[in-house]
Specification:
Length: about 220
């Protein structure tokens, strides 16, 4: 804790506690990561620099280097922050809704629809992560680990639904969830012109994902 000295009206010096250093450090970290995500979405990873992040976050460049060893380290942390948002949003929006779904296949479709909305809402940011994952192993490994964890957590929910058809196993569900994830990664990595040319705009994709889930899980496999 920092101690700040102040002059009282009677001329005596007294002390008061300053804001905890940890809270200020956390706030600075949040500003840095938020700035990093904004710049990645706007400029792309190729044009993304630690100096630009510091300027956008309103902190000294040295503050960024105190927390991140290099550009790759910051990229992985920025990606992790977005993935944490995906997990948090899914927990807040999906779990209550899934619990109210009487139909097992519809519950799985709901998960896929919500994940698609998250990818679409951050398409520019996610595109950079997906495209550069091939060149930056740490980026790819961190994303895959977090998304696999999310899929496993959701699979636990689906396996516990009372109306899950007995022929649908954990393996079937994970296969569908990973197929949806791969489809969304492909979509964000595809330029809008190409996507339109092959009739795969976001609205079409949003309509087709539940059909994919229903086609696979809605029948004996």
């Amino acid at each position: 804790m920092h101690i700040h000295f102040c002059l009282c009206e009677d001329g005596l010096m007294t002390t008061r506690p300053g804001p905890p250093r940890q809270k200020r450090s956390q706030a600075a970290m949040e500003r840095i990561l938020e700035a990093a995500q904004q710049l990645i979405a706007e400029e792309g990873i190729a044009g993304f620099t630690l100096n630009a992040v510091a300027a956008r976050a309103g902190v000294a460049v040295g503050t960024v280097y105190q927390r991140f060893a290099n550009k790759e380290d910051l990229l992985v942390s920025a990606q992790q922050r977005w993935l944490d948002e995906v997990v948090r949003t899914q927990r807040e929006q999906f779990l209550p809704a899934a619990a109210q779904q009487p139909d097992f296949v519809r519950a799985v479709s709901l998960y896929a629809e919500q994940l698609a909305a998250l990818f679409r809402g951050h398409a520019c940011l996610v595109r950079e992560f997906v495209v550069y994952a091939a060149a930056i192993p740490a980026l790819r490994e961190a994303a895959q680990q977090r998304l696999d964890q999310l899929a496993q957590e959701r699979c636990d929910v689906f396996m516990a639904l009372p109306d899950r058809p007995p022929h649908i196993t954990r393996g079937h569900i994970l296969l569908v969830l990973r197929a949806v994830q791969s489809l969304l990664e492909w979509r964000v990595a595809t330029s809008p012109d190409v996507a339109e040319a092959i009739a795969m705009p976001w609205d079409t994709l949003a309509d087709d994902i539940p059909k994919l889930v229903t086609a696979y899980l809605g029948h004996d496999t």
